From TrEMBL, chain A:
GO molecular function: protein phosphatase inhibitor activity
One GO CC annotation: cytoplasm
Subcellular localization(s) per the UniProt record: Cytoplasm
Source species taxonomy: Eukaryota, Metazoa, Chordata, Craniata, Vertebrata
Annotated stretches, region: Disordered: 1-23, 64-115
PANTHER family: CAMP-REGULATED PHOSPHOPROTEIN 19 (PTHR10358:SF4), ENDOSULFINE (PTHR10358)
Protein name (Swiss-Prot/TrEMBL): cAMP-regulated phosphoprotein 19b
From TrEMBL, chain B:
Entry protein name: Serine/threonine-protein phosphatase 2A 55 kDa regulatory subunit B
Single GO term (MF): protein phosphatase regulator activity
Assigned keywords, A-Z: Repeat, WD repeat
Oligomeric and partner information: PP2A consists of a common heterodimeric core enzyme, composed of a 36 kDa catalytic subunit (subunit C) and a 65 kDa constant regulatory subunit (PR65 or subunit A), that associates with a variety of regulatory subunits.
Length: 115, 445
């Protein structure tokens, strides 16, 4: 394959000064990025918070009526332009009644990969 | 099989999916997988749909024979659900598809969302019965008094119909979100893993599942590590591995005990504690683990690198490849836009000589282990003329940018290649961008 020869570090090669220098550079890069982050967010959360957020991934709704309302409003939701997840889901502004809810099953759209 | 080594030249073959930039969430591709022969290629998306492509072999005697993948079957695998107890939505997004080895005329695959695994049977029908005695051709029942003779119905050819039907539903075994499914080499059992537990199933039994790993602490405040991926060994049916958010891989032997909470082997690369930064643990989180076809090695993907481990050596990987080292100076902004949590997958080629993984800006990387060479390529509509050779891409970390190089700051972090797959025998690869599936093949195929 064309391209540059890649440095694959293997244990047989004694770590040359090059590798150690690279690691020092890496560490200082990370630490300066960390300083940047801490400057912007002084109250940065700790590890267990991050993990627990991960376990609880998913939008919480008040109840199934609330969920179905939100689904009806977001039916043809496009990708948000920012990478950040959509945080402004519509829930809880209105008590749902059976008339407000969409018909039981929306038409299932075929995948565009199969088009 | 293509000759190992030698310069591989990748050419565009096909692209599937919509061209427009307006991407609906449901169209985001979430998994890509070849079956064991490479004849079938399955994709899953955020909308819970599965699309299967089949390879049509063109005339093999042509010097540059091209194999085209065309739609074979498509079906809705999972639908959105609402967990009433927790008031949480259960996404229909297909997290993983895994094919079963073929045993008869039908094909089987496992597809899973966050909570439920389903076994799908995909079968072909190309004949239909004709000449019923009691029914008309349109299905209406005849008046029995009008029947004066009997005939034997015959099977006549019909247009090929591919049907997908759910044969098993494996539900209610996971409190947390399923990240992996892996079929065992015994072809009878499979494992499913979520953030804290790994379960063992029998393909025939849906109402029972054995818990084989449980890392949930009694006090959730003490939670420090979650399971990120798990896979069975390709030949040893008693062996599986699971990776964690701390960059640790544990290998377990099911013969040792029923609950494999104690690992048989633990793979971790030592790190000098003084070198740790806020990002160290986050970027060490393993997003994918894959055994080599030989079963001797395993590959792990963390945020910035791909590591190859020899199963006989636990204290460090035998090879490490930097995928996009230039991102190290961008960790702060990657944390802010959540990209640092992106889960990239990785894959081996058929003879374990080359590994591949994705990156941002629709770039993907291949590392040739035997030749110590690597290349970065791009999946884009601009390079999509038939058999167009892909040009290597280069990212400039900073300073003087050479011609044809792209600066780190111009990379599009919304264009991520998280899912790639390599044909089990040939040099054909499937690369998924956000909503398109690219198929490339080696020119000397």
């Amino acid at each position: 394959m064309s391209g540059d020869k890649v440095k694959a570090r293997t244990p047989e090669e004694a770590p040359a000064d090059g590798t150690e220098v690279q690691e020092t550079i890496n560490v200082s890069l990370e630490k300066s990025e960390e300083a940047k982050l801490k400057a912007r967010y002084p109250n940065l959360g700790h590890k267990p918070d991050m993990l627990r957020k991960r376990l609880q991934k998913g939008q919480k709704y008040f109840d199934s009526g609330d969920y179905n309302m939100a689904k009806a409003n977001n039916k043809n939701k496009q990708l948000p332009t920012a990478a950040a997840p959509e945080k402004s889901e519509i829930t809880g502004d209105h008590i749902p009644t059976p008339q407000d809810l969409p018909p039981r099953k929306p038409p299932l759209v075929a995948s565009k990969l199969a088009g | 099989m293509a000759a190992p080594g030698g310069d591989m030249q990748w050419c565009f073959s096909q692209v599937k999916g919509a061209i427009d930039d307006d991407v609906a969430e449901a169209d985001i591709i979430s998994t890509v997988e070849f079956n064991h022969t490479g004849e079938l290629l399955a994709t899953g998306d955020k909308g819970g749909r599965v699309v299967i492509f089949q390879q049509e072999i063109e005339n093999k005697s042509l010097p540059q024979f091209r194999s085209e993948y065309n739609v074979y079957s498509t079906f809705q695998s999972h639908e959105p659900e609402f967990d009433y107890l927790k008031s949480l939505e259960i996404e229909e997004k297909i997290n993983k598809i895994r094919w079963l080895p073929q045993k008869n005329a039908a094909q089987f695959l496992l597809s899973t969302n966050d909570k439920t695994i389903k076994l799908w049977k995909i079968s072909e029908r190309d004949k239909r019965p004709d000449g019923y005695n009691l029914k008309e051709d349109d299905g209406r029942y005849k008046d029995p008094n009008s029947i004066t003779s009997l005939r034997v119905p015959v099977l006549i050819p019909m247009d090929l119909m591919v049907e997908a039907s759910p044969r098993r539903v494996f539900a209610n075994a996971h409190t947390y979100h399923i990240n992996s499914v892996s079929v065992n080499s015994d072809h009878e059992t499979y494992l499913s893993a979520d953030d804290l537990r790994v379960n063992l199933w029998h393909l025939e039994i849906t109402d029972r599942s054995f818990n084989i790993v449980d890392i949930k602490p009694t006090n959730m405040e003490e939670l420090t590590e979650v399971i990120t991926a798990a896979e069975f060994h390709p030949h040893q049916c008693n062996t599986f591995v699971y990776s964690s958010s701390k960059g640790i891989i544990r290998l377990c032997d099911m013969r040792e005990s029923a609950l494999c909470d104690r690992h048989t082997k633990l793979f971790e690369e030592p790190e000098d504690p003084s070198n740790r930064s806020f990002f160290s643990e986050i970027i060490s989180s393993i997003s994918d683990v894959k055994f080599s076809h030989s079963g001797r090695y395993m590959m792990t993907r963390d945020y910035l690198s791909v590591k190859i481990w020899d199963l006989n050596m636990e204290n460090r990987p035998v090879e490490t490849y930097q995928v996009h080292e230039y991102l190290r100076s961008k960790l702060c902004s990657l944390y802010e836009n959540d990209c640092i949590f992106d889960k990239f997958e990785c894959c081996w080629n058929g003879n374990d000589s080359v590994v591949m993984t994705g990156s941002y800006n629709n770039f993907f990387r291949m590392f040739d282990r035997s030749q110590r060479r690597d290349v970065m390529l791009e999946a884009s509509r601009e390079n999509s003329k038939p058999m167009q050779v892909l040009k290597p891409r280069k990212v400039c970390a900073g300073g003087k940018r050479k011609k044809d190089e792209i600066s780190v700051d111009s990379l599009d972090f919304n264009k991520k290649i998280l899912h790639t797959a390599w044909h089990p025998q040939d040099n054909i690869i499937a690369v998924a961008t956000t909503n398109n599936l690219y198929i490339f093949q080696d020119k000397v195929n």
